[in-house]
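Quick check before the chapter quiz. The format below is the same one you will see on the exam, so make sure you can read both the input and the output lines.
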Amino acid sequence: MATPRNGGHLYQIAYLPSGKHTEYSKLLPETEGEATGRFVKLLPEILGGLSIMRITREQPLGDRRVDLVVEVRAGPLERSLVVEVKRIGEPRFAREAIFQLQTYVREVPNAYPVLAAPYLTESTRKMCKEAGVGYFDLAGNVYLRFDNVLVDRTTPLAIRQERKTVRSLSSPKVSQVIRAMLSQPKRIYRVTELAKASRVSPAQAYKVANLLELKGFARRDPSRKVVLTKPGGLLEAWASSLDFKRNRIAPSFSLERTPEAVMKAIAKAAGAGKRPYALTMFAGASLIAPFTRFYDVTFYIEDGLGWWMDRLDLKEVETGSNLQLVVPRDPGVFTDAQVRRGYSIVSNIQLYADLLTNPGRGREQAEIIRRKKIGF
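Here is the expected output.
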């Protein structure tokens, strides 16, 4: 917590109890008016450390209307919180709201700008702080900083948002589009071109493009083509959303004495049986940008788990494995697989994603792959 300016008293705002968060955050409001109504009810809880003198809805301001003006007092200090309410708190919608708020406060004496939405994403919250704008949402995320008042709280509480749109960055179809865009981060796509590059339908490509625009990772140019604006941010967000454990994983034991010998046996078996495979995790990284010693080998197979177990003379074990065969939930992991020194390895994008959430030194190895081989 920062030191109060001018040596004054620092007022810390109280927060909504977790039970009431759940009560008010079950469903996404259908309209901004409904969202505003919920906030009006909750303001005494959200701003529990401040005295609320007056709440005005739809207050005229020139040729516009402000969603909420909340006049508050903290000790001898008085402020007008100028609140812009959005139904969706994604960066795409937040940018315009922040610009409006910055305009509003120039016209309202003693005003402090605040963005409110049922749920504000991490990217949006960061955007607000950088712009000098406060925020709060129904999940319990709150940030206000003016005069000697400071609050900065983040909650993991999620909101179930029932919407008929692509929701997850980690679904196989969405991942296919993301991989295609990250493989050529500077390319500008027509939707039909994006669909062809990612091997999905134009309708699916359109939905994913909208999702990425909504989350602030992409934008549309004047001709409505799609271009990435934050490839690094998208890479990290997508990789963080994946759960390697959702794959079918067979931990096994090989009689080969070293990881290198295991890898040679895999490549030999694949060549003889014409079976596709792709090394990943530390085994794959050892051939791309080695960083640390590794003791087990992880690789993807399309199918034929029994064939691989027999050909490599493996025994499936619960503990003490030195080999993991992985049948992927998303077959797109094989996209842009590369060959190094005679071994098949997943793309650098996929390698980064697999390593990022790996226990131990996975994140460190992932960042080396990113810095040396991906470049954004």
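If your answer matched, good. Residues 244-374 form a domain with the Beta Polymerase; domain 2 fold (CATH 3.30.460).
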